[in-house]
Amino acid sequence: MDGNAAFRRAMHIVSPVFLSYYLLPEDLRPGSGVTRTSVTLLFLGTAACIEIARIALGVRLFGMRPYEGQRVSAYAQGALGLGLALFLFGDLLGNRAPYFVVPVFLGMAWIDPLAALARRRSWPRSVVIAAYFVLFLATEYAMLGARAWSWQFLFAVLATGSAMIVEGPKHAQLDDDLLMLVVPLAVLTAVVILFGPPALL
Predict the structure, then answer these.
(1) Residues 85-115: pLDDT tens digits?
(2) Is-contact 178 186, C-beta < 8 A?
(3) CA 200/CA 91 separation, integer angstroms
(4) pTM (2 decimals)?
């Protein structure tokens, strides 16, 4: 594995640090107007500006694949996926959002590199699928306990299936760092809205 690939794997592994968003109070400095939301939007906006400048100047950042020079980078698409997870799906799911966003984000962060390793070593695809399913279900159980267990199992099945569908194929402009966040969350959100499972809180 070269340095660029190792850096990408490391970024994936440590990226769940962004989920600390859910541990922070909304009002970071009472009375100052500095909020969790505003700081997160500032971070995402800065990332977008850097990406626009990178494309305009033709700069290739460390860790980027060669073909990313002609499209929005995986870094930027991952940041976009994070923003959609926290805000768009956060609004749609309300106080249930962390119980979906956290396991889906962990699946993108940790199972995507595992899938790449599995391809290099010719491991069965079932290893990756089982790993995603177990990680998702274990994360939900750690957060919720045995509450709504049958729903947790269903959500794990749906998230695993939708994430694995978009993880494998290569798309000209879309990266799986984005797709593995947005697609499972869209599927799970649709189920919640359409079928209204019991409150998980």
Answers:
(1) 999 999 999 999 999 999 999 999 999 999 9
(2) no
(3) 16
(4) 0.92
Residue 108: both structure tokens together: 């993108």
Q: How far is CA 183 from the centre of its chain?
A: 10
- What secondary structure letter does DSSP report for 144? H
Is the distance from CB of 97 to CB of 90 less than 8 angstroms?
A: yes
What would the 3-class secondary structure string for 78-136 be?
HHHHHHHHHHHHHHHHHHHCHHHHHHHHHHHHHHHHHHHHHHHCCCCHHHHHHHHHHHH
C-beta atoms surrounding 135 within 10 Å: 20
24-75 pLDDT per residue, tens: 998 987 777 789 999 999 999 999 999 999 888 888 877 777 777 778 888 8
Residue whose structure tokens are 């769940």? 16
The CB-based long-range contact list for 49-52 (8 Å cut-off, 24+ gap) reads 51/75, 51/76
Question: b/e for 137-167, b at 16 or more Cβ within 10 A?
Answer: bebbbeeeeeebeebbeebbebbbebbbebb
Give the phi and the psi of residue 81 in degrees, each rounded to 5.
-60, -40
Element (H, E) at 28: strand 27-29
The token pair that represents 133 in the structure block: 């399913």
